[in-house]
Amino acid sequence: MTWLITGGAGYIGAHVVRAMREADEEVVVYDDLSTGIAGRVPEGVPLVEGSTLDGELLSRTLTGHGITGVVHLAAKKQVGESVDRPLHYYRENVEGLRVLLSAVTEAQVPSFVFSSSAAVYGMPDVDLVTERTPCVPMSPYGETKLAGEWLVRATGRATGQSTACLRYFNVAGAAAPELADVGVFNLVPMVFEKLTDAAAPRIFGDDYPTPDGTCVRDYIHVVDLAEAHVAAARRLKASPGTDLTLNIGRGEGVSVREMIDRINALTGYDRHPVVTERRAGDPARVVASADRIATELGWKARHDIDDMISSAWEGWLRRHPEATAS
Ligand code: UD1
């Protein structure tokens, strides 16, 4: 079986490629290299440079490489940017997916794993978010992920293809320093950046209805997340007609203040955070129930918060050696 990993040169995609190879699956990477990095693709793995909007190249790739399953991660993923550029997000994330599914259907590829997000839930008013919690996305980004799930499921039902929609919670960490996230869009790298710049990490609001007043999230190590893709891919391969929608989280809430405390402790800094205004659109608490994926795939996260922070910090230091605390 050969898997096409779209977005396989990206931060999460490169981890999925690595995990699939470790599980002895054949992979081909398809990436437009807009944010992906060719150097992340391991030697011996074919890299096809192209857009998911290019149906012809996709069809040639699927048939040319004898692809029998797709893991689709190529997408735009910045919430703020999606608010400013909704048409761009719908084109890349929804139209790109439609074109890909059309090529996949024509080539009769039997398995499809879709990278979705906890952003589909919006502001869930529950302690633990289950896959039955209503989906009310709060941003065009979240809308494109929800619409993507609909497209994937509808196509699967119509064609008999096996599908899995994986809803990622807050992803952090790295399998190796060179695979670390290079974007500075999330809490962990944003705190690293402040430490490096001799500035105070920021807490966006401490008046939320949570134990310490700061927002609570469910952080998941990218290595665990990648292994969940392998488990899903194997399940689809083994059970034709499968239609899965699964949260990928640890089921443990960690507050922004707790994260900053651990980052200080693990990096050797002691930089007190400043509390600023709330960031618009941030839910107080988003924590997964990880029960369904445990039951369905036997998958459970193995790495904790310290593993995520330490491995992300090693990657950060590789690119910012000046950040070492004295
Ligand atoms: C992230 C993703 C979102 C995804 C969700 C779950 C982005 C921008 N958002 O959202 O698409 O659906 O995970 O997968 O990629 N914070 C601070 N100070 C900082 C930075 C962040 O207090 O300097 C706070 C935020 O207000 C938030 C928490 O830290 O409460 C986490 O923020 P972030 O890492 O941006 O992720 P989410 O907003 O949860």
Quick overview of this protein structure:
By secondary structure, the protein is α/β, with parallel strands linked by helices.
Descriptive key words:
UDP-glucose 4-epimerase activity, UDP-galactose 4-epimerase, domain 1, carbohydrate metabolism, three-stranded mixed beta sheet, single chain, Epimerase_deHydtase, Rossmann fold, 326 residues, alpha/beta, 2 domains, globular, binds uridine-diphosphate-N-acetylglucosamine
Q: What integer is the average pLDDT?
A: 97
Largest sheet: 7 strands, parallel
Q: Give the number of domains.
A: 2
- Count of alpha/pi helices: 10
Number of strands: 14
Alpha-beta classification: alpha/beta
What Rg do the Cα atoms give?
19 Å
Q: What's the N-to-C terminus distance?
A: 50 Å
Specify the CATH homologous superfamily of the largest domain.
NAD(P)-binding Rossmann-like Domain
Strand order of the largest sheet: 3-2-1-4-5-6-11
The CATH architecture of the largest domain: 3-Layer(aba) Sandwich
Portion of residues in helices?
Answer: 25-40%
Percentage of β-strand residues: 15-25%
Which sequence of SSEs, written as H and E, runs from N to C? Answer: EHEEHEHHEHEEHEEEHEEHEEHH
Low-confidence stretches: none
Which ligands does the model contain, each kind named once?
uridine-diphosphate-N-acetylglucosamine
CATH topology of the largest domain: Rossmann fold
**CATH class placement of the largest domain:** Alpha Beta
